[in-house]
Amino acid sequence: MQSYPSKLLESAVNELAKLPGIGRKTALRMALNLLKRNIPEVESLGNAIIKMRNEVIYCTECRNISDQELCAICSSPKRDHHLICVVEDIRDVMAVENTGQYSGVYHVLGGVISPMDGIGPQELHIEALISRVAASHIGEIILALPTTIEGDTTNFYLFRKLAGFNIKLTTIARGVSIGDELEHTDEVTLGRSILNRTPYESGLHRK
Amino acid sequence: MQSYPSKLLESAVNELAKLPGIGRKTALRMALNLLKRNIPEVESLGNAIIKMRNEVIYCTECRNISDQELCAICSSPKRDHHLICVVEDIRDVMAVENTGQYSGVYHVLGGVISPMDGIGPQELHIEALISRVAASHIGEIILALPTTIEGDTTNFYLFRKLAGFNIKLTTIARGVSIGDELEHTDEVTLGRSILNRTPYESGLHRK
User: Fold this and answer.
1) What is the mean pLDDT of chain B?
2) How distant is the Cα of A149 from the closest Cα of chain B, in angstroms?
3) Residue numbers of the domain that contains A83
4) For the segment A13-55, what is each residue's pLDDT rounded down to a tens digit?
5) Do both B144 and B107 map to the same domain?
6) Looking at the domain assignment, is residue A39 inside a domain?
């Protein structure tokens, strides 16, 4: 048991240690770092997280984090609104956006089905996706969920839920990453990349 | 360049990423975790760090972080006030306190002399130590600074500054850690542990 020379320090360390991946030693290092900074800087950190938690809203259409009722992507006339990419969370939206290869819109589930963690379909934005599909004309839904048991379960659940609609359902391609050596690729990925081989296009592997 | 779907999120990520050892990816993970928590929890984190920065004071005697003008150690009549242990920062005070082997008081320098980082003697609480020594009757000062070039420089600086006073100046023992194998101990430590060998006391190596 560590004993802190100051209750104020102790309570800051306790709070910082609740952040994901932060232990008590790291939290103490952070607290001491904050003590060395000037007051406006520390207030700016404290207020930024409180303001974010209080004021962030979620896009009514795709459930992505947003500053407006309809996010920048959902309100853009340049995007293909008949194409929806279903992702786990906002980090995946950012990752796909960074590729510059996607022109459709998104649907953020806010997680994947995980009975072990007490996350069922009703904890996720799945009903919102179904209503969205029922309300407008969607041509294709791309499932871009993680390749884990939970991701697969969620894919299967969505597949069953969406089967009644006349929509093309696809998943992102799994294969050998560009730059990866075959010998270091796991068997499942390599196996799939052979089954799902694509016609040769010269120049595609360079960028 | 990542583009965030919300300015509020972006500003929280920017602030979190200023914490030591936290990159932008980890900061985003933290921000998303905070968004999933309830508002009072997030306010409690934000306010704890602001309150700590605004209200923490430093003990006027030893410069340790404290809630009162005189810290719990400096105000305790049970401590030996003629014995001062000089340390770099509050974490070292906590480490020494945890041993339960020390009954003296401390002096927290707030760092070590490091010209590379622009830290000279005047940035540290060295003058406060000299005044303390001049004002009261101190019998011994234990230097417990890190064994780095900066720590050694600071030790030497303090040695020169304190030479005029009639005070016993010691450093903590360096040697082979309890439980360590000799073959894995570096030569300098092992060499010192032979030079500074101590009389055999049975039972000391167990605990």
Assistant:
1) 89
2) 22
3) 65-172
4) 999 999 999 999 999 999 999 998 999 999 999 999 999 999 9
5) yes
6) yes
Residue B130's H or E segment, with its range, is helix B126-135
| pLDDT(B205) > 60 | no
User: How many beta-carbon pairs under 8 angstroms link A with B?
Assistant: 166
| CB-based contact B56 A35, cutoff 8 Å | yes
B30-46 pLDDT, tens digit each: 999 999 899 999 999 99
CB B107 within 8 A of CB B87: yes
For residue A1, the model assigns a pLDDT of 46
How far the first Cα of chain B sits from its last, in Å, is 54
Interface membership of B172 toward A (CB under 8 Å): no
> By CA distance, what is B45's nearest residue in A?
A15
The answer to whether residue B8 neighbours chain A at the CB level (below 8 Å) is yes
Query: In the prediction, which pLDDT does A100 show?
Result: 87
Residue among A4, A42, A93 minimizing CB distance to B53: A42
Residues of chain A in contact with residue B14, where contact means CB-CB under 8 angstroms, are 48
Question: Does residue B73 sit within a domain?
Answer: yes
A87 touches chain B (CB under 8 A): no
pTM, 2 dp: 0.77
CATH of the domain at B119: 3.40.1360.10
Which residue is closest to A40 within chain B, CA to CA? B50
What DSSP letter does each residue of chain A carry, written as one string?
----S-HHHHHHHHHHTTSTT--HHHHHHHHHHHHHS-HHHHHHHHHHHHHHHHH-EE-TTT--EESSSS-TTTT-TTSEEEEEEEESSHHHHHHHHHHT---EEEEE-SS--BGGGTB-GGGTTHHHHHHHHHHS---EEEE---SSHHHHHHHHHHHHHHTTS--EEEE----PPTT--GGGS-HHHHHHHHHT-----TTTT--
Closest-CA distance, B114 to chain A, in angstroms, reads 17
Q: Are residues A26 and A79 in the same domain?
A: no
- Note whether B164 and B107 are same-domain residues: yes
Q: Which of A1, A2, A3, A8 to mutate to test the interface with B (most CBs of B within 10 A)?
A: A8
Q: Do B66 and A5 touch (CB under 8 A)?
A: yes
Query: How many structural domains are present in chain A?
Result: 2
